[in-house]
Amino acid sequence: MSAEGPGLPRERALARVLPPLLLVVGVVFDALTPPQFTASPLFAAAPLIAAPFYSLATTVATAAVSCVAVLALRIDNHSGVDVQVVTSFVTMLTVGALAVVINRVVRRGDVRLASARSIAEAAQRAVLPQPDPRIGGLDVAARYEAAQAGAFIGGDLYAVQDTPHGVRLVVGDVRGKGMGAVAAVAVVIGAFREAAEQEATLEAVAQRLERALAREGTRRDGLDAFEGFTTAVLAEIPRGDGTVRLVNRGHPEPLLLRADGRLCVLSPAEPALPLGMGDLGAWPDRADETDFPPGSTLLLYTDGLSEARDARGVFYDPAIRLGGRVFSGADAPDALLSTLVAEVLDHTGGGANDDMALLAVRRPVTPSD
């Protein structure tokens, strides 16, 4: 999700109009006022405003027009070349040169930013690949929405795996930001993909993730070495028995949207600590099992969805918003996620404070159903 406010494009458009507008206003002002008045500040501002928004050629052209306009108007006002005319012209040359320097600095920064964005996007695709729309006979859709413009990946994660034990999923949120969080995301997803294939139970998968994060914590420095943790919910959808099993480790509760619009909040029977906090208490994970009938959609999400706030500080509540609504057909998961993203954008006024990972899985209706 972009952090740019809805008014920013209009402000950029206004800034791009200002340089030629300042030149025109400067000429008119100088022509209509007595000789002792000068529009030099307007002519000086034009190339400086053009520098960050226009190309080098346009910036140079704006600076040249400003210099010529100042020289011509000052000569006309003073009936010749004197010290004031030369001073004004040299000042405009200096301002023009400064505008060119600013333009070059901004353009180089844009190139580096574009490169960083490309690298971040490649990292996202490698760590969080878009799942296939059909996995293990289930309809699947996933979405990652970054809170900051240009930030493609952070501490939120999701993964879907078709295994001998059924389709297994994980959605999680790593504490912290930056490269440390990204490294933890890679650790969790890597451990999940291996454990999902090898472990016979969902509880064992959760324990494998716990051990993987514990090993990662010994390699992390500073506060993360002591307070690093990951909230996560793991799901297992066995083939053919119409159920879903969940292990929730301190994560927002998944939602089950039935085909008739009824909504069920899948709260854990026993709350558990997030992954990576095993030192504070140890008890066996216990999976909760619930019906997952044909036509139903399971929604897993991070707190970037449930903690999205509007201007008054009111949270977006997906359980209230989705109750009674029906999403049907093979594209129901994708339609559900698109609806959530659009509603969060509208609720927050175009921006959010946290990244948001969404994963929706639908059990299709078969002829036997």
The gross shape turns out to be elongated
N- to C-terminal separation?
A: 38 Å
Helix content: 40-55%
Going by CATH, what is the homologous superfamily of the largest domain?
PPM-type phosphatase domain
For the biggest sheet, the summary is: 6 strands, antiparallel
Helix/strand-derived category reads: alpha+beta
Strand order of the largest sheet: 1-2-11-10-7-8
Please provide the count of β strands: 11
User: What is the overall number of helices?
Assistant: 10
CATH architecture classification name of the largest domain: 4-Layer Sandwich
Jot down its keywords.
alpha+beta, 369 residues, disordered N terminus, 6-stranded antiparallel beta sheet, 10 helices, Phosphatase 2c, domain 1, Serine phosphatase RsbU (Regulator of sigma subunit), 2 domains, membrane, elongated, 5-stranded antiparallel beta sheet
